[in-house]
Each structure stands twice: as structure tokens, then as C-alpha cells.
Amino acid sequence: MGDGDADLSGDLFSGIEGAEELDFDKTESEFELPKRPRGILSHTDREYLLGLREYKHKQSEANRRQDIRERVVNALEDYLLLRLFLEKEEREKIFEQELDTDLLYDCLEAMITFVYLGLDQDENRLGEIIERGVLVGANLERNDRSMGDATNVEATIDIDYDPDVDELHRRMKESGGETLTPAEIGVLVRSGKVDSDDLETLSEDDQQSRGLAIGQSILDGLREAGAEDEE
User: Fold this and answer.
1) CA 218 to chain CA centroid, nearest Å
2) pLDDT tens string 92-116
3) What is the extent of the structural domain holding 102?
4) Are the C-beta atoms of 42 and 75 separated by less than 8 Å?
5) Is 102 helix (H, G, I), strand (E, B) or coil?
6) Distance between CA atoms of 226 and 231, rounded to whole angstroms?
7) With a threshold of 0.90, does the pTM exceed it?
8) 89-124 burial string, b = 16+ CB within 10 Å, else e?
9) Looking at the domain assignment, is residue 10 inside a domain?
């Protein structure tokens, strides 16, 4: 290749629409992704996320990931416009005609999941955002103007976890209880994995002191309940 010849491999095509099509291999799969119009993601984006497309050059794959990120960011910013300027009739068509009920609910559920994960699984922040969003929506369009302005919205998100008792017990043995919260110590006590002797061997920092007190209180309560049953 002479000095004036262009090298068509590698990063030359970075940032050029469609150039990455020259730099991929389709993975072997019986699954064929149905084509539908482009939304936030292009058909190529969807294939990449599903593992149906692999790039020969790392830079091309990095470009694909960056494109996806940028489109998601721009889509989120577009909601600022959709909220205020998309006509009510058009919005109603989206929710009432374009998607059947089950698919609509699945999509909305996925949106909430994506936001929740993006907020680092902080349910308090998510709750605050839902409250503000509903409050704005309640005042943008009111079916009954005589009801006045909405002034407050409360959204409470309570998450109940089914703890992995064996994993908590393993962590307690490995760290001496230093990595356990008071609530986790309480779980171990209620499950019968921890007794008074175990509690005495745990570390004595401030958090653990609270945990020990809670654990001992739970243990005492279980013993009292057992004694009452025997009577």
C-alpha cells in the first residue's frame, strides 16, 4: 500500500454512520431478531445487546456502546419536551392504540427497572422522583378544574427481601460480624444460626454494639416465647 492509499481497517470509520457494518461478524444463533423501526436503539444496537453481533475491532465496539449511551441520554432529555408539548390526543394514541395492554405494562415496568438501577437502587430517590412527576402531571392536566391544584403527593416504596441466611452466616464467620448490619444479625438470630455465645464473639464497634443489642433482644424474646409455650 502506497503512502497515498487509505487504510480501510481499524478506527478510520469511527463515528461515521453505518461504517461499523463493515467491521462485524454475526454470531451463530438460531434466533433471528425481528426487524422493527428504530427507536432509541437501532436494529444493530439490538443485535449487539442480544449478543448476535460481535465486532472485530475493540474501537468499533466501543463506538457502538457510546452511540447507545448518547441516544439514551438524548431520549431522556426528549421527555422534557414530550411532557409539555406533545398533544394530548397524540399521547393518548400511544397508550391506548399503539401497544396492547400487556406489552405496554411490560415496557413501563422495564422503564421503572432501568431508572431504579440507574439510581443505584435508591428507593428513596425513586420515590421522590415519582412524587414530583405525579404532582406535575396532576397539575398539567386536570379532569375536574373545580378540585383546585394538587399540592402534595406521597409515594412510599417498601422492599421486603428474603435474605440468604447461609451467606450471612458465612460472612459472619469470615469477618467476625464486622460486615453485618444490625438487621442482618437479627436475621441470623431469628433463623437459629446465632446464639448468645456467637454474639459475644462479634466485634464491638458502634454498629456492632447496636447489632448485638438487637440480636440479644431478639434472642431473649424467642426464649421468653418458648418458655410461655411450655407453661
Assistant:
1) 33
2) 999 998 889 999 999 999 999 999 9
3) 86-141
4) no
5) helix
6) 9
7) no
8) eeeeeeeeeeeeeeeeeeeeeeeeeeeeeeeeeeee
9) no
